[in-house]
Amino acid sequence: MASKITPLRVVAGLVILGVAGLAVAVGAPAAFGGDSGNPSASLPVPITPALIQRGSYVAVEGDCAACHTNPGGQAFAGGLPINTPIGAVFTSNITPDKQTGIGSWSYGEFERAVRRGVRPDGTAMYPAMPFPSYTHIDDADMEALYAYFSKGVQPVVQQDKPANIPWPMSMRWPLTWWRWFFAPTVQSARAPGGAQDAELARGAYLVEGLEHCGTCHTDRGIGLQELALTPQGGSAYLAGAVVDNYSASDLRGDPFTGLGRWSEQDIVEFLQTGHNSKSAAFGGMTDVVTHSTSHMQPSDLQAIAHFIKSLPGSGQEHAFVYNPAVALELQRGDASARGAQDYLNNCASCHLSSGAGYTDTFPALAGNPVVNAANPVSLIHIVLAGGSTPPTAGAPTSFTMPGFADRLSDQEVADIVTFIRSSWGNQGAPVDASTVAGVRKAVNAPEPTLSK
User: Fold this and answer.
1) How many angstroms separate the CA atoms of 306 and 300, rounded?
2) What pLDDT was estimated at residue 223?
């Protein structure tokens, strides 16, 4: 289960960094990946329509719009709050406006911000910006990205909002040491290495770099650092984490809690449309599909799927086997199991008594990794608040699940979630009412108002 990161633990992490930083020698920044780049560097290639077009696609791969475009706001003008355990950070205006955006930035300043987490004034960025992943972006893509944001984006006059982080956690000087210790050295070009095939290398480049999947799907340590940035960094890489009161799924090969039962085509379909026969996108993943993966080339999606399927599971889970016992009980009219009656009254019309759902419409609950996750927060969150699948070119119809917070008590939600997590072969642990109450408070879901 993902560890809980609290403000106290973050302060402790900053103290540890401070003590360690005092012991760092003058040459340590380069050794720890602290190279700050050259802010005066010029773009080494001319800006052409082709380069701008390529940069537009790189921005799609990097999912820049999802964070730098506030819902209802202008493209890339920023202002979206990114909630962290220590407060909110607001995304910046990355349009080419010269006063409030990045229009006056040199290529060197742009490159330092994206790949190294250094602002033009030399201070460090908060790691809400995924520059540890962006260190993997190669020079050609970086140059194209700069061309696009310099000449291919409409300037917008909009001042950046200051971070809502209390002192002393708002201090930026410890972030320089954070960058030295936790951000890898910039890689100007990726070497495939060994027997790695081209498709696998392309998938690794996208997943580890531009798509920055680990930002959400890898758990974090006491300093808010990702516990691993690549598969070589350990088994925590893409093994799941908690983000915005959702559990970002385990993307590794675990058959119950990960993608062990998914084929490469299942992954491609999910990234193209936001759903497949096994699950549907929710939470922040809907933004990823909407702004990024649904617009990507099929070959790139296939490369991502190929790389993800190369990640082994923990080896601690056996294969999922569907168990029809609960479905047969419900079909016989036996709803005596905990949560069974509430499931029939609120869920079965879409997800069926078999837990199989409707293919490409309402996701299956049987064998669903979200259902079987060690942390049930996603399932509780979805039951309370509902959700919608993203409309895409490949699947233009959006399907919506209503929230049940206003009609179900904490105990009833706990009973339903426990029923789902223990039926049809699922093996999730039971959930109690206090856990549901905590999620209800965290997501500001209403209390039930309908009488029973």
Assistant:
1) 10
2) 86
CATH architecture observed for domain 35-182: Orthogonal Bundle (1.10)
Distance of CA 74 to the CA centre of its chain: 23
Provide DSSP, 362-386.
B---TT-HHHH-SSTHHHHHHHHH-
The span from the CA of 345 to the CA of 159, in Å, is 49
Element (H, E) at 433: helix 433-442
* Assigned CATH for 199-452: 1.10.760.10
**What would the two tokens of residue 251 be?**
């993307």
Residues of the chain with CATH 1.10.760.10: 199-452
- Measured in whole angstroms, the distance separating CA 381 from the mean position of its chain's CA atoms is 16
Q: Are 452 and 403 in contact (CB under 8 A)?
A: no
Can you give the pTM of this predicted structure? 0.90
- Over residues 264-323, the pLDDT tens digits come to 999 999 999 999 989 999 999 999 999 999 999 999 999 999 999 999 999 899 999 999
- Residue 248, burial from CB neighbour count under 10 angstroms (0-12, 13-18, 19+): buried
Measure the CA–CA gap between 215 and 220, rounded to whole angstroms: 9
